[in-house]
């Protein structure tokens, strides 16, 4: 059965990646009661990690696209936590986002809007969430963005 999320992904010309495997000694998500805590997902596209520093190598729009890629990986992890049943996804509760940026770059919230806007477009009110968007001097593998999330299950 196709869910609303999958229909919207198709309409937007997007596909979810396979849930990325952890890169170190941690699990990709933990389910505790009705909450799913998803480990940080790095900006990654079909060709591999999306690397760059906002304010130096990357313009704002490239950062927005990197954040969108993180959101797709977050949803892939949420789908895995739901046993493949997106119908169990009740709410995006919180995003914590890290933007690889220079000290002068101050548009971290605009970068992370790439993820937030995509989640709302795909999930409607279920996609509305609280959020933090902070600068980082560097991120693993030199990626542009890393985002972790908390989801609530029905």
TrEMBL record:
<dbReference type="InterPro" id="IPR013813">
    <property type="entry name" value="Endoribo_LPSP/chorism_mut-like"/>
</dbReference>
<feature type="domain" description="Endoribonuclease L-PSP/chorismate mutase-like">
    <location>
        <begin position="6"/>
        <end position="141"/>
    </location>
</feature>
<dbReference type="InterPro" id="IPR035959">
    <property type="entry name" value="RutC-like_sf"/>
</dbReference>
<protein>
    <submittedName>
        <fullName>RidA family protein</fullName>
    </submittedName>
</protein>
<dbReference type="Pfam" id="PF14588">
    <property type="entry name" value="YjgF_endoribonc"/>
</dbReference>
């Amino acid at each position: 059965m196709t869910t609303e999320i999958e229909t919207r992904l198709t309409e937007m010309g997007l596909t979810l990646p396979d849930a990325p495997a952890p890169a170190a000694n941690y699990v990709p998500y933990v389910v505790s009661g009705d909450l799913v805590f998803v480990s940080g997902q790095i900006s990654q596209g079909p060709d591999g990690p999306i690397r760059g520093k906002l304010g130096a190598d990357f313009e704002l729009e490239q950062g927005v696209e990197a954040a969108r890629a993180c959101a797709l990986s977050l949803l892939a992890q949420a789908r895995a936590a739901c046993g493949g049943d997106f119908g169990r996804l009740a709410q995006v509760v919180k995003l914590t986002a890290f933007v690889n940026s220079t000290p002068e770059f101050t548009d971290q919230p605009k970068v992370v809007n790439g993820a937030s806007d995509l989640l709302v477009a795909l999930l409607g009110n279920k996609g509305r969430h609280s959020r933090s968007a902070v600068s980082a001097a560097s991120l693993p593998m030199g990626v542009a963005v890393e985002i972790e999330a908390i989801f609530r299950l029905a």
